[in-house]
From TrEMBL:
Protein's recorded name: Glycine oxidase ThiO
The encoding gene: thiO
InterPro entries, sorted: FAD-dep_OxRdtase, FAD/NAD-bd_sf, Gly_oxidase_ThiO
GO CC term, one of those recorded: cytoplasm
Statement: the UniProt record of this protein carries the keyword Protein biosynthesis: no
MF annotations from Gene Ontology: flavin adenine dinucleotide binding; glycine oxidase activity
An individual GO BP term: thiamine biosynthetic process
Enzyme class: oxidoreductase
Entry keyword annotation includes Coiled coil: no
Pathway: Cofactor biosynthesis; thiamine diphosphate biosynthesis
Enzyme Commission code(s) on record: 1.4.3.19
Coiled-coil region(s): none
Pfam families per UniProt: DAO
Amino acid sequence: MADVVIVGAGVMGLMAARELAAAGSRVILLERGEAAREASWAGGGIVSPLYPWRYLDPITALASWSQGRYLELARELERETGLSPELRQKGLLMLSVDDEAEALRWADRHQRPLTRIGADKIRALEPHIRIEREQGLWMPEVASIRNPRLGRALRRSIELNPSIELVSNAEVTRFDLNQGRVDAVETMQGRFRAGQFLVCGGAWSGGLMETLGLMLAVEPVKGQMLLFNNPQHDASAPLLDRVVLADGRYLIPREDGRILVGSTLERVGFDKQTSIEARESLYQSALSMLPALQDCTVEAQWAGLRPGSPDGVPYIGAAEGMENLFLNAGHFRNGLVLAPASCRLIADLMLGRTPEIDPAPYRWSLLP
């Protein structure tokens, strides 16, 4: 019997498995499809909340811890697996920001590197970007990571770890309960028992809790994205070299010259179909920021399902009314951003260690 069964093998489940195994736990990781193929694959990979001052302090606490961890994590994964997650610490440039004063107050309060810059500095950073205002905001330490490659590296790390068993195509159909404890989970691949159970089910977490008669305020929120391919890419003079954010939309460059634009916010249930309307909206947003993209080709369009929660604050800790059931879910738009901190916190709580991060704001009982 395993020490822990984790339900969900996205970035959150994979990182949690690594944390628990590093402390000596034997872990079974169950995934309803393929590991790291849902929101973990579909997102953009910016290692910062968009407009971070607009989020509650509990999100800032997790994001700050995670941002300090990602560089080390990327190096660890490449050493372990030979696979690079392609972490690029090139900064975040924000244009057309209406609440700059609040952003600067937030940065001062939390000691985060964020400054106001003028048009000359913007042009020096990104000469091809269209400038509509003569100033913007600059966060030089923000990184981006190529999330599909992060997912592959995490999965390979799990496969190489003898303390972790990954079971794919193992959708959980029921939890077996006995006097306020979970004894086992039933899946399409069989029955799995453990001393503790952790739900990292992303957008499906609410439905999993519903099978236990518990209400968890997590719902799917669709996001669509486009990928541009620049056939004339010159690594010495890229069309775009850092993440740019304007009017709620962002551009993310990759090392090979590809550029992502995202993202929509759609509350349409578990529908992952793409639409012509979203494609046109994203295309126009991309060109409004970087007009030269009109000479590039749209290589792909896709959609993913974020685990939406009230105010974007995740649920991290023991599940209400269950002695050995834990949650790490509801990270909304910031799952990848918050994953290292969230997984360290849930491991601390499950293992009885003194948490490095205050767990109080993420308790189920304190959230709607």
